[in-house]
Every structure is written in structure tokens, then in C-alpha cells.
Amino acid sequence: LSPGPGGVAVPRAGLKKLVMPPDYSGVTFPERTKLKFMDKVPAVPKVRREPRRLRDIRGPSREATDFTQGQYGILALGGGYLHWGHFEMIRLTIGRGMDPKNMFAVWRVPPPTKTVTRKSLGHRMGGGKGPIDHYVTAVKSGRLVVEVGGRCEFEEVRPFLTQVAKKLPFPAIPVSRDGLQEMRREEEEKKLNNQNPWTFERIVTANMLGMRKYLSPYDLRLKGRYWGKFFLKHRV
Amino acid sequence: APAAKMAALSGGAAPWRRGWLPALQFVRRGSKAVTRHWKAMHFQRQKLMAVTEYLAPRPAVPPRCLEAPRERIEEDNGYVRLLRRQVEEAFRDNRMIAVCQYNSMPGEDMVMMRHYLRKYNIEVKFVLNEIVRPVLSQTKYKNLLPLFVARNILLVSRETKAKEMLRVLKGVPQINLLGACIDDTILSRQGVENFAKLPPLEAAQGQTVGSLALLPSQTSSLLQRSPAYLTALLDQHIRQLQDGKTGTPAEPGPAQSSGAH
């Protein structure tokens, strides 16, 4: 329905356009179509407690940013830690929602290896580092968590992927290959047609008005789009 | 935030003596860089974020007022081609093509109407406007284009039986005749009615032949008037002779009368 000059679209019945069904000839299925079970504790549990290193949450992701096997996936729009409960939730929800004969799902995130320590409740500060409580995986923004593919359309896959995305500890959205490309293209366009002559990057790199006094040295790299673990999507 | 200034220590005691205070120092206090909650930004940073926000481009004419270029990729649908071919054939083969407005009718009425029209060898065709319009615009039937708007049907036939068609259509109130193209002449509704009132072809042919032959017949009668008069007189004379035979034979009579003329 195309709107006329007044802006109103008049519905009209025309010739039915018969669309060819999609061609899934080039799709290769992995051996196991369902998601692999992730253990709570790695095969060799860690003895040494490691420092917190929250920088593995901060900033954009460098790995698993593009699709490999599947066509659709869940994109993380913020940083966070995924623990075994999240993994089980993802595995079961996707397992319930997908059709193992025509679709396959693949993890893009390693099993939990980072140790998280917890002190027992009700004690004062001090007395050393607490014992290991559980294991987590760090996820940065812009990383794919799971990938789904096969003989299916985005509309079939979207419901259970959104269900999973809402339950993750960081904001996430289901994307397809085209959707991701579209997002990146829009970002580039925004950067190009920004009418504001003052950009964060420009001010920080030139240290205008001594702004670097109030900013972190990481802001040179993050360019105002990231704040802590959060990804600010509306910023250029 | 920058760490505590080390330069103050290296400068020695002299700047302090002069009454110099270090500039405001920001010690990282409170939470770490990466927190679960939204860490409060320094006010200067907030101002910087506000200043460097994205400003969308604003064209002089809003895109809603401009007509966007219709990027309609005309995929040559085989079905569309078939329908177009059918329409072209219909226009080529049939002598009479009538376009009627088609309002929704009950099914049985439709079937009955088609049956009656079939008896007079008239076919009812349903064609989509979006197919007929491009086909007609390229042929000589361009003036029929204004008729192909909204719901319509085509009544096509190889003979031109306008009177019977009008009679059938009169009985069906939902079908209204808009126009017709009979023998490559476009007629309006009034024109079709007049066409129906005309006498049949043979009578019309006889009429034209008679009107054409009027003048030559007059000239031939003019030419034949004197010999006809002569033959009439001769006949009269023969009759007189036959009557006079019973009386006195008068032979020089006709010789004198023929010599006088």
C-alpha cells in the first residue's frame, strides 16, 4: 500500500503476486543441532582465585561479532557475566522453541571459566579473599551469544530468541545477518550525517577545554558510546 | 579522573610559600569504573555528553511532502503476461466489446445472466484493471481507458446483437452499461441504444440500395418515356383495329397517324 499525495493509502485488491518459497540449498547442518550442555564448573576446576578484572565487561567486543554458521542470533547490547543458570535457561528455551530437524543452534560463548568469589554472609570486611562461589563467562557489548540457522525464517525464530534475550543479564536483541548489516550501515550513516560539529571523539582527542581531566584514558578508545558496562546506543 | 598531582611534591616548598594552591584534584572515590548500577557522571562529563549528542539532518522540504521515487521492480510475471495476451486476443477476435459496471450480484442471478447471454453467443469476461490499462494504452483503444476504473466486466461477442444484450441487461439491475466498442467504433450508452434500434443489416442494405438506385431509375424512366408512349399508342391502335375489324377496316388510318408524328 503506497500512500497517495495526501498521505492516505487507499486499499485496493490487485493481482495476487505469487512468491517463490525460499531456497535453502546451501545450508549445512552441524552434527548436533541442539545446544551443547555447558558445565557449571570446568573439567579442571581452578584452585587459584583470580582478581575481579571488570575490564572484560567494559567496552566493545573484539571476538564473535559476526555470524559464522547460522543466519540469526542474539546480539548483546551491553556487558555482563553469564553463569550456569543463564546457560541452562538459554539451552532449554531454545531447545523448546526450535525444530531440531530443520533448525540448528550453536554457542558463540565459551563455557564459564572465570571464578567469582563470595564471602559468607554476615561477616565484617577483611580476613582475606572469599572462596570460589561459581564460574562465569564475560560478555562484552556487540558480541553474539548464540546462533541459530537452518531451514527457517527470521519470523519463526524471533519469538523464542526475544524470550531468551529479555532474560539475559544485559540488554540483548535477536538479529539476522541482514539486520546486523543494517544496524552497522545506520551507524555509519549517523556518523556521516551528524549535524553537530562537536563530537566526543574530536573533543577528547584534541583535549578541548581540558576535558580529559574529567574523563578516563579509556574514553579515547570508547569515544563516549560506552559507560561502565552499558552501551549507549543513541550516541553517535 | 586524574590521580593526585605529583608535581606539587617535586616543585618543592616554594610554590606553597607563594600561596599557590593546587588545582582541584579528583581522586577516584566511591565505586569502580565498571558498576552494576549506572554510575553518576561528573557534571563536566554530563555537559560534554549533552553537547556532543547526535543532531539529525533536517532537509528543507520534509520527505513526506515529496513523492518518493517508486522503485517498483517490474518482475515479468508469467501469469501477468498470459492475462495480457488473453486481453489482446479478446480485443482482436471479437466484433462487439461492451464495458459494464459490475456491482455485487447474487450468485444465481449471475449464472442466469451468463446463461442468457451465452444463448446469444455473448461471453462475460472478468479482467483486472491493472492488466487492461497498460494493454489498452498501447493499442488504438486509448479512448476506452477512462472506462476501466473501479469494478467492471467485459461482454464480448463475435456478432453484434446489441438489442438482445440490452434486453438481458435491463433485467439485471446490478450491471450498468458504460460503453461499447462495436466494429472498432466507440459508442456510449446512448449510442448503443441507437445502434440497437437500427433495422437489421439486410433491411438496411436494401434501403441503401434503394436510395442509391433512385436517381438512375428516374433517368431510365425519363429515357424510356417516349418509346413507352409510342408502344401505348400502338397498343391502343391495335385495339381500335381489332374493334374496327368487326366494323369497317380503315388501313390508311394508322399509316396517317404514324406519318403525322
From TrEMBL, chain A:
A Gene Ontology term for the protein's cellular component: mitochondrial large ribosomal subunit
Gene3D superfamilies according to UniProt: Ribosomal protein L10e/L16
Pfam families registered for this protein in UniProt: Ribosomal_L16 (PF00252)
This protein's UniProt keywords: Mitochondrion, Ribonucleoprotein, Ribosomal protein, Transit peptide
Assigned protein family: Belongs to the universal ribosomal protein uL16 family.
Any one GO molecular-function label of the UniProt entry: rRNA binding
InterPro entries linked to this entry: Ribosomal_uL16, Ribosomal_uL16_bact-type, Ribosomal_uL16_dom, Ribosomal_uL16_sf
Subcellular location field: Mitochondrion
GO biological process, one term: mitochondrial translation
Principal place of residence: mitochondrion
Name of the molecule in the record: Large ribosomal subunit protein uL16m
UniProtKB/TrEMBL annotation, chain B:
Pfam families given in the database record: Ribosomal_L10
Lineage top rank: taxon: Eukaryota
Protein name per the record: Large ribosomal subunit protein uL10m
A cellular-component GO term for this protein: mitochondrial inner membrane
Alphabetical UniProt keywords: Mitochondrion, Ribonucleoprotein, Ribosomal protein, Transit peptide
KW Mitochondrion (keyword) present: yes
Location of the protein in the cell: Mitochondrion
Gene, per the UniProt record: Mrpl10
InterPro entries: Ribosomal_uL10, Ribosomal_uL10-like_sf, Ribosomal_uL10_bac_type
Keyword Kinase recorded: no
Native source organism of the sequence: Syrrhaptes paradoxus (Pallas's sandgrouse)
Classification via Gene3D superfamilies: 3.30.70.1730
Primary localization class, coarse: mitochondrion
UniProt record similarity statement: Belongs to the universal ribosomal protein uL10 family.
